[in-house]
Structures are given as C-alpha cells and as structure tokens.
Design goal:
Radius of gyration: 27 Å
CATH architecture of the largest domain: 3-Layer(aba) Sandwich
Number of domains: 2
CATH topology of the largest domain: Rossmann fold
Strand content: 5-15%
Largest sheet: 7 strands, mixed
Shape: elongated
CATH class of the largest domain: Alpha Beta
Structural class: alpha+beta
C-alpha cells in the first residue's frame, strides 16, 4: 500500500508540474521578458491546447480559489518533518508559488509588493522566462532572510524560502518575489493571505518593512514601487547565523526547468577573497589572501608637464548571485572602445567585484577590488582636484544599484546587508566630481535607476546656491540608460556605447537610442555634440585631421606633453582664473 501511495503522489507531482494554468500567465502568450509586452504568437491555438490538457488532466491538478488564495479540492500531503525527498518538496513548492502568482489580481487589490503597472507587466510574462530559487527542506533547520536595501517583515525563522526572478534579463536591482513557507494552521494562513498546503504549511509573500505605513501616504505608483519592491536575490541563511556583520552562508539554490520555470544564470564565481583588515585609503596595492595575485605597484596618477585622458570603470557586483557573464562582457567591450579612442592602458582604472580579477588583455594585469570604497573615491577626487592632469575623464558604471540610485559595491562581510562602506551613493559621486578640473567629464551609467543621477546633475548645474561651480557642471556629460524608475535591460545600451569611434561625437551614443524602451537621458547635450570621447573638438579641424590619423593621435589622443614654459604659462593662467 505504501508503494501504491508513493506512485500516486508521484503522478500528481508530474501532473502539477505540467499544469498549463500553473506554467503560464494570461493564457501563455510568448512574451519579451524585458518589458512584459506580448510578441507574436497564436493565442487561439495555445488556448485550445490548454483546454485539451485541462480536460485530459481532469481533477488531478489543485484548483485555486482566487478570492482567498487557498487551493481547494486538492488531496496533497507533505510531511513537515519527513518529506519524501528534497526534490519532491521543491517541485511542489514551485507549483504552489505559481498558483499564488496566478491568484494575484493587480486591478482589484492594490499590491503591496510593487506598482500596479509593474504588476500587470509581471502577469504578462510566462513562467518559462522566470528563474526559481528555493532552500532545501532540512530537519531542525529554520531560515532567515537578509536583503541589501533594508529589512523584510517577519524575516526570520521560516521552514523554507522560495524566490522568483521574473526579469532575469534586467540588471539588479529589479523586482524579485520572495515567499515564506511556515507551519501554520489554516485559519492563521488565511489571516496572512497565504496559500495553504494540506500538509500544514502556508505560503506567504514577503514584503519590505514599513511598506504598509508608506501606503497610507500620498505617493505615486512609481514611488510606491521604489519603496516596497524587493530588488535583489536575498541572502538566505541558517537562523543560527543571525548576528549582523558576520558572514552568512547562502543556502538558496537555483533550480533550472522545474515545474515549468526557466533556466538558471551563468554566474561568475569569485575565487579569491579580500582580507577583512586590508581596506586601504590609497590606490597603492591590492589585498589578497596568501597565494593569489601580487600587489599592484604604486604609480602616479598625474605626471608634471603632461595632460592625459583618464578612464575609470566600476562594477561592484555585490555577491556571486548578481555576478553574471554579461557584465564582464560589457566591461571588456567598453575597455576595447577606450583603447581604440587612444586611452592608454595605464590610464584606465578598473574596479571590479570583490577581488578585481577580470580578463581584459594580456598586458593589463589586474583591476582593483570594488570593495575598497576609499580607493574608488580617492581615485576620482585625485584626478578631479589635480590641475592640468586630465583632459578627458570617462567614468563607466555598470553594476547593481538600489532604488535610491546608490551603487552596490561588494558585500565584504558577507552578511547580505548593505553598510555605508559597501555602497557608493549618488551624493558621494556628485561630491567627488564637483568642480572637477578635467576639461571634460563623460559619465556612462548603464544601471537600474540611473535617472536619479541625471536628475541630481541637472539640479546642480542650475542651482543658484553654488553659482561658482555652475560652469564646471557644464563640463560634465552624463548618459544614463533609463529614468528614475527604470531598470537596466540586457546589454544593448552598453554594446551601443562601446561602438563609439574616434570620429563620433559623444552625443552619437545618445542619438541612436531614441527607439529604446527606457527613458535614456543626456545632460550637457551641447558639449556632447561638440567633442569626442577623447576631447577633440568636432568643428575645429576634426574632419581634416581624420585623414591624418597620426596627427590626430598626437594632438588629442592619450597624453600630450608640454614644454616647461608652455606648461608654466597654462598653470599661471589657471591660477589667475581661480583668483578671480
């Protein structure tokens, strides 16, 4: 009899996993994950196929009461202490998560986890395009959750955790759904608006702390989404590691193609770790454990009698879950574009993930770890505060960002919560480039919520409070991949920027993106139209010099050396300007 019972349960699991109503949303149109809009597909044919499958399955699949989010007519039995196998439990969990998501009604119930418009976008995406993460069921183990952008309500002591990434082609941060699994009675589960397992488990949707109070205030739908969304794959750890500031072991796993969900990401794992007591104030050496790369020799950023084009690329990465291959490929392409435009390798500083290891070319040894916030800020301020050092200063940002526009660097202590030393805020970046002495500052920001930086720069350039620095802001050109509420999608924008040639004005990187779904923005448009990325003026002889590439390189690209009298003349002229 036990064997027969197990066979029946296994058959029901397979039927639930193949269940069309739990495998797709909104009659399963073929969708573009990036923006949730429907693409070509025969909807009528798919509806007939779903109808036939439902008829064949009969009453074996659990039905969902959309009003109360409770499965009815189901005869499921999951033991709280002795599940048959971990794989079976995860399969059931994935099916119930799908049932919960199908029951979400964006129009009649004001969602507490995102805006109504983004909720509708979510409903248009098939489960095949989403990623599913879960924790294994373990005896005598309860789980807690940590996220970088704040606290979750009821974040600790759960039987299991499930996570759905509905927008895997978007850069973090973007909306993810986190679910708790707890041993509750049916009445308590209903009070929490959860989905009840007949085995005594309850599935509920996690929410940000204080989000309930925010809904009582007068916020727009987009503002609510920024305050209430969970934007990162959380760190799920054994409850015994609850102490903040200490490393927590990630127990969350991605399960590919389970119950109709999609594939798992191709991640880049960081093999070397930064020593905890090795954060430096200057860009002088690297901090590795024994047996890894040697320290980088100290070099001067600025040489007397020489003005150079400089560049800095920053990808924080945060942790292994957000480290995917497309960010490394974006960096490689942008690095090659800089070299094509005359930037010298020793003038391109790369800050990358937790160890700085990124393959660029044979002669570039290593980057610096993005975990060293002081090194990043010192690099920017040194270049901006040194007179006659920099002609064109290029900054490329392509990494995880929080909903307030802050750049996540690296989770150095491994606790899953962002500390002030692990984030580079918009205000800090603005302070670092304020009144920069470089002739040109070009910032390329391909990351979520990059429009916040655009808004702040425009405020500074027109601010009557700092009239002395208003002219310096006119030298700062920012190209952002989206608006204040937009995610950064795929890698098309970075690909386009990496196609800049030595004859293109910087505005070319913006003009060709008018078709893009996000609100791509540009500040100081006139300067972007008048100069190349290496600072050559478009209208003053560039077409003529284009036919003489060696003269173009010597006059504008890379570094230009001055005779001492000429350098002293420029320095004295600059000194007189600062006195006035």
């Amino acid at each position: 009899m036990r064997t027969i019972h197990l066979l029946i349960c296994f058959c029901v699991v397979l039927a639930c996993a193949r269940m069309p109503s739990a495998g797709r949303l909104r009659n399963s149109p073929t969708n573009d994950t990036s923006n949730g809009t429907q693409t070509s597909g025969n909807l009528a044919s798919r509806r007939r196929e779903h109808s036939a499958r439902n008829t064949a399955q009969g009453n074996n699949a659990p039905r969902t009461n959309l009003r109360h989010n409770v499965p009815v007519g189901s005869n499921l039995h999951l033991s709280v202490n002795r599940p048959s196998t971990s794989k079976t439990f995860v399969t059931w969990l994935a099916a119930y998560v799908q049932a919960y998501m199908l029951a979400i009604n964006c129009s009649t119930v004001r969602p507490k986890f995102t805006s109504e418009s983004r909720c509708e976008t979510l409903k248009q995406i098939s489960f095949e395009q989403m990623r599913f993460y879960a924790t294994p069921r373990r005896i005598n183990t309860v789980y807690s959750v940590a996220i970088p952008e704040g606290k979750l309500r009821d974040h600790s002591s759960h039987q299991a955790i499930a996570v759905v990434d509905p927008f895997p082609t978007a850069s973090f941060g973007h909306l993810v759904l986190v679910f708790y699994v707890d041993a509750l009675t049916k009445s308590k589960c209903h009070l929490k608006r959860g989905l009840y397992f007949d085995s005594g488990l309850c599935l509920t949707l996690a929410r940000r702390s204080k989000c309930r109070n925010i809904h009582r205030l007068q916020f727009t739908s987009e503002q609510l989404s920024k305050k209430c969304e969970i934007n990162f794959i959380p760190t799920v750890y054994d409850h015994s590691q609850e102490t903040p500031g200490l490393k927590r072991d990630q127990t969350l796993e991605c399960f590919p193609y389970i119950a109709g969900f999609g594939s798992c990401p191709k991640q880049l794992l960081t093999t070397s770790k930064i020593e905890s007591d090795c954060e430096l104030v200057a860009n002088s050496k690297r901090c590795y454990e024994t047996g890894t790369a040697a320290p980088r020799p100290q070099t001067s950023l600025c040489d007397r009698l020489e003005t150079c084009d400089h560049a800095m690329t920053l990808f924080g990465g945060w942790n292994d879950e957000t480290m995917v291959t497309r960010h490394e490929e974006n960096l490689q392409r942008f690095y090659e574009m800089l070299k094509r435009n005359g930037f010298k390798k020793n003038k391109i500083q790369v800050f990358y993930n937790g160890n700085g290891n990124v393959p660029l070319d044979d002669s570039y040894r290593h980057g610096l770890p993005a975990s060293n916030k002081n090194a990043i800020r010192n690099h920017v301020t040194t270049l901006c505060r040194t007179s006659l050092c920099v002609d064109s200063f290029v900054i490329y940002l392509n990494g995880p960002a929080t909903s307030d526009g802050s750049i996540l660097l690296w989770d150095t202590n491994g606790d899953g919560e962002a500390q002030s030393t692990e984030t580079y805020t918009v205000e800090e970046l603005i302070d670092d480039v304020a009144d920069c002495d470089a002739n040109h500052v070009f910032i390329f920001a391909d990351q979520s919520y990059s429009g916040i930086l655009t808004t702040r720069l425009r405020q500074m350039s027109s601010s009557p409070v700092y009239p002395a620095t208003t002219s310096s802001w006119n030298r700062v050109v920012l190209l952002s991949s989206g608006g204040e509420y937009d995610y950064s999608w795929r890698d098309e924008i970075s690909r386009h920027w990496s196609a800049l040639s030595h004859l293109h004005p910087v505005s070319w990187a913006y003009d060709a993106l008018g078709y893009w779904r996000s609100q791509v923005s540009l500040t100081a448009a006139r300067r972007a139209q008048d100069f190349t990325i290496y600072g050559a003026p478009i209208e003053q002889g560039l077409p003529v010099l284009a036919e003489r590439p060696s003269e173009l390189r010597n006059k504008y690209m890379g570094c230009q050396r001055f005779a001492q009298p000429e350098w002293l003349l420029q320095f004295s002229s600059l000194y007189e300007m600062t006195r006035d």
